[in-house]
Amino acid sequence: MWTLCSLESFASPRFLDLSGAALAADKRRLGDRYTGVQWVVADVTKWQPSQTYDLWHDRAAFHFLTDHADQSAYVDRLKLAVKSEGYVVIGTFAPDGPERCSGLPILRHDADTLAPILGSDFVLIDTRRQDHATPWGVVQRFQFSTFRRAQRDGFAVTVKEETPNIQSSAVGCCSFRRRRVSGLVQKITSSGTWAV
Predict the structure, then answer these.
(1) Which of the 8 DSSP states describes residue 131?
(2) In the beta sheet, which residues pair with residue 133?
(3) What global pTM score does this model have?
(4) How far lies 39's CA from each of 12, 132, 173, 189, in Å?
(5) How far is CA 54 from CA 132, 168, 194, in A?
(6) Residue 40's domain is classified under what CATH number?
(7) Roughly what angle, to the nearest 10 degrees, separates helices 111-118 and 68-81?
């Protein structure tokens, strides 16, 4: 699941997914509540963004990219899509989380494994763990790592060290491959917390 937003009041977030059927189901579920949403059916490893974004939110899709070439293509898209000083939030199964998802193999990650994949253009600013209880009572361990796109001044790369101070809502609902993921409405508050 990928949610791409510009901070101009998040008036027109984009939701990107490989499955048009999954996006259609999520669009029906959301109804008229989020009319400004732009739904994009695309493979994130091949997608060509038409603009840049302040926020990229990937909730449990990156861990399906088990091939180095797919991970590199993903990072190339991050570099095209995320503005200087923009934010990237990537959620994956944690190192002690499940080894498969929806019957597919995945790669488990934490901030220490994600940072080298993203490279020096993205600086880690926060990491959090979450234990998610599934409807069938199984606990799945996730991690969410937040990176900030480095600002380039000449040849030097600098990153401001403050916590994100984004007061607008980000809306997202997408899925990856055949896996349907329910809608997501979150706020990043000045304290750096996530509210669902």
Answers:
(1) E
(2) 139
(3) 0.76
(4) 10, 27, 9, 25
(5) 27, 12, 17
(6) 3.40.50.150
(7) 70
Which range of residues forms the domain containing residue 168?
2-195
Q: Which two tokens stand for residue 168?
A: 């607008």
Question: What is the number of domains present in the chain?
Answer: 1
CA distances from 182 to 29, 111, 171 (A): 9, 25, 12
Cβ-in-10-Å burial (0-12, 13-18, 19+) of 121 comes to middle
Q: Could you tell me the CA-to-CA distances from 112 to 45, 131, 142, 157 in Å, in that order?
A: 22, 19, 14, 20
Q: Count helices and strands (H / E) in the chain.
A: 3, 14
Place of tokens 């791409």: 4
The pLDDT averaged over each successive group of 10 residues in the chain (196 residues) is 50 82 87 80 92 89 95 96 93 95 94 97 96 92 96 53 38 29 31 32
